[in-house]
Amino acid sequence: MRAKVRAEAEPLRETMSGADVLIQALKEENVEVLFGYPGGAVLPIYDSLYKNPIKHILTKHEQGAIHAAEGYARVSGKPGVVIATSGPGATNLVTGIADAMMDSLPLVIFTGQVATNVIGTDAFQESDVMGITTPITKHNYQVRDAGDLPRIVKEAFHIATTGRPGPVVVDIPKDISNSFTDPKFDEEVNLPGYQPTTQPNILQIKKLKEAISESKKPVILAGAGVLHGNASHDLLTFAEEMKIPVTNTLLGLGSFPGDHPLFLGMAGMHGTYAANMALYECDLLISIGARFDDRLTGNLKHFAPEATVAHIDIDPAEIGKNVKTEIPIVSDAGEAIRKLSEQNGTPAESEQWRAHLSGYKKDYPLWYKEEKEKLLPQRLVELIHEHTEGEAIVTTDVGQHQMWAAQYYQFKNPNRWVTSGGLGTMGFGFPAAIGAQLAFPDKTVVGLVGDGGFQMTLQELSVLQELNLPVKVVILNNQSLGMVRQWQETFYEERYSHSLIPVQPDFVRLAEAYGIKGYKVSSEKEAAEVFKETMNNEEPVVIDCRVCGLENVFPMIAPGKGLHEMIGVKP
Amino acid sequence: MRRIVTATVNNQSGVLNRVTGLLSKRQFNIESITVGYTEKEGISKMTFVVNVDDDQKIEQLIKQLNKQIDVLKVSDITDQAIVARELALIKVLSNGQVRNEIGGIVEPFRASIIDVSRDSVTVQVTGDSAKIEAIIDLLRPYGIKELARTGITAFTRGSQKSVTELKQYSLLK
């Protein structure tokens, strides 16, 4: 009806191609950088980009592009935007999409698709992107009319960045990019099926505040939701006022200052003894923006057995999913914490409890056996901390190096820690560092990677070369897939099946092949010298750190065990 | 326990795939599912019957469905006063001699014979699941050649109060 009225009022102006509309729509969303890789089905889009440029980072593999976008999103809070072609371009993104879904990162991903008249015919470079990505996206679209593009792009950014953030895929057939339309960019987003709750129910807030006053042994578990809600400062004020100790999930690190007296360290499988015992012994557990992942809780039977559980989460489906919750609060983390602070209530009488936990902190800290001769991986992370004053953005893959970074790089500030938590993706850390560096060109970005993970995405060194991005690639090289090897040592009687990789490229010469400075260090002294020289300069660098190969990450909760059954605690 | 869940959804391509994919991804067992248009243009209604272990699981199912952008409303209507109906088509072997006997079964069920051939009749029956099970049991001795059931479609009764004061009408409890 409306179209008809418009047609009468003015002649239909079919002025823009679908591809032009897309680029314009991205500009309307203030997109500053695209991570992508061209191909047949996105030729029209790349042609529009040529005429109407947005900064575009050409990675060497689509997986590099999407992990870079994740790194960018994690540190900047802005959506990461990715473009790839149909078929293999799209399928190469799958790991990154699943990773962003698990870790709630806002991404908007545009994939090319074969023309609408051949969809479903197994055409060249066709893949069922909608079918493949439906289970691993917050939402996805296939554009069937170029006139829908402004609305779909707007909705995609809205869905990706609001509520619990997540990846949204927009699949664009080639003929839609080529067809002409008269776009309307000013339509409001209208999604009746998507109305995330951001304000807490005040009755529940009151109930929690009362529970705090009555509790003797409260603890706060702060997850990445605190970071997404920009609520680190509110959390600090609240915890100090209410005198409640704080622990973090892996992804929540940085949401509370690592050196604060109320901070217990990270909880979970490789968390600190104090943090895990606090969760085990507490009488009130306040979880904020955390989803009780199995690597955090250990055996659920022994998780916070004595506690009243309060769970603040923007995603109602996370509340009660794994842990029975007495005080459910569906809300943005920041809104909930601020409402809690405004509400009258006395702080917890937690003196004894805090003293008790301080005892745990003092008696059972993180520890390793010092060896002067060798370069210990734990010591390596401490050295990076010293030479970056704890201010660097640190990205990692998954595995031993990730756990050591989480344990020993005491984060002081929010949004400096970029790691693949839920999906546990090898090859994530290095491209994520590229994205983080692009978001903050002046900050020191350390891509701390294992020798295994680095070899999954090291081709992106050419991006450092091309843009002279000063990313510091630190390879924690133990010539093995360390975490796999550790589990084989612990649970498979040292049968090191395919986890030792003594044959490796010369990483120094590899870096040099890309025109990047490379160093190899095998002692604390050498490492300190190279870090001193490179950590704060404006050049990319690859540092191959030959660490002691048989170190294990401790302490640990073995699979199936409870929080109180940690092994490898300081004797 | 069996639960009847209804979902109002945008009638977009792929929405059935979203819903069933979500259920299978999270290990929910769908017993039956029906989809069809509603009185509102662009809006469809799904009714599914699922088997879950406990209340926590059904709560999780509803919350996960609610997160779907194309899902507008989800309700577990099992414990409400509802009208729930299913349709079955049953092709029964029959020659002229037994046709009358089959007619005698069909009539009290208010079912109907909608197709006749030399060696079979097709019976159409509508009702709750128990009624359909009952007629299938009675027809089985004659030899069932083919059977197709739609699965349950349901919504809540217009008046909840007066009905719940009487005996609650619930199919699956």
From TrEMBL, chain A:
Binds 1 Mg(2+) ion per subunit. One of its GO terms (cellular component) is acetolactate synthase complex. GO terms for molecular function: acetolactate synthase activity; flavin adenine dinucleotide binding; magnesium ion binding; thiamine pyrophosphate binding. PROSITE patterns: TPP_ENZYMES. It is an enzyme of class 2 (transferase). Pathway: Amino-acid biosynthesis; L-valine biosynthesis; L-valine from pyruvate: step 1/4; Amino-acid biosynthesis; L-isoleucine biosynthesis; L-isoleucine from 2-oxobutanoate: step 1/4. Residues 16-130 form the Thiamine pyrophosphate enzyme N-terminal TPP-binding domain. Residues 397-545 form the Thiamine pyrophosphate enzyme TPP-binding domain. Belongs to the TPP enzyme family. This is Acetolactate synthase. It comes from Exobacillus caeni. The lineage of its organism: Bacteria, Bacillati, Bacillota, Bacilli, Bacillales.
Automatic annotation (TrEMBL), chain B:
Its EC number is 2.2.1.6. GO terms for molecular function: acetolactate synthase activity; acetolactate synthase regulator activity. It comes from the Bacteria. It is an enzyme of class 2 (transferase). It catalyses: 2 pyruvate + H(+) = (2S)-2-acetolactate + CO2. It holds the Pfam family ALS_ss_C. Residues 4-79 form the ACT domain. Keywords: Amino-acid biosynthesis, Branched-chain amino acid biosynthesis, Transferase. GO terms for cellular component: cytosol. GO terms for biological process: isoleucine biosynthetic process; L-valine biosynthetic process. Pathway: Amino-acid biosynthesis; L-valine biosynthesis; L-valine from pyruvate: step 1/4; Amino-acid biosynthesis; L-isoleucine biosynthesis; L-isoleucine from 2-oxobutanoate: step 1/4. The keyword Iron does not apply. InterPro entries: Acetalactate_synth_ssu (IPR004789), Acetolactate_synth/TF_NikR_C (IPR027271), Acetolactate_synth_ssu_C (IPR019455), ACT-like_dom_sf (IPR045865), ACT_dom (IPR002912), AHAS_ACT (IPR039557), AHAS_small-like_ACT (IPR054480). Gene3D superfamilies: 3.30.70.260, ACT-like. Chain A, domain 2. NCBIfam families: acolac_sm (TIGR00119), PRK11895.1 (NF008864). Catalyzes the conversion of 2 pyruvate molecules into acetolactate in the first common step of the biosynthetic pathway of the branched-amino acids such as leucine, isoleucine, and valine. Belongs to the acetolactate synthase small subunit family. Dimer of large and small chains. This is Acetolactate synthase small subunit. The gene is ilvN.
